[in-house]
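Checklist before submission:
- one chain only
- standard amino acids only
- sequence pasted in full

Submission:
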Amino acid sequence: SRGLSDIDLDSREALLLAPQFLRPTLIFGRASTPRSHWLYLAPGAVTAKFVDPTPPLGPDGKRDGMLVELRSTGAQTVFPPSFHPSGERVAWFGQPAGGGFAGEVERTDAAELIRAVSVLAGAALLLRDGWSEEEAIALARGDRSQLRRLGGPRGEKACAWLDLPATRKIR
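Returned file contents:
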């Protein structure tokens, strides 16, 4: 991938929270999720998947717990102007009239990128678990006054991604 990494926002929670945790960069997606792929140049980044340990049942009757992925060497992404398997066209977000790119790919450190994606995943999991958007963002940014009991599989996973003690029982 020569350092090219795709942050694939697979959940509505990650899509909502991404601008709070990811630096602006070149973005693409499809009509139903136009800002679902954020590109970065981060030499040394490795593919990582962040999955809800107790995924909800989707409208199709299946459980897909993928929240967000950092795709790098060894992973594949459908790029513009291709078609997604759903049949939707994949396009650049904010593409100027006449084509071309709507910006440049942001360059970043691989460790910084994985940390940002990990924090985004933790906040997305908290949001999915019933936390308010404000609480999830505040906790992910280090505001420990927002802590409440983080129990169960989602709480444990969020603690790991946010680098919090798993046994924290503060209200």
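Reviewer check: The CA atoms of residues 34 and 155 lie 29 Å apart.
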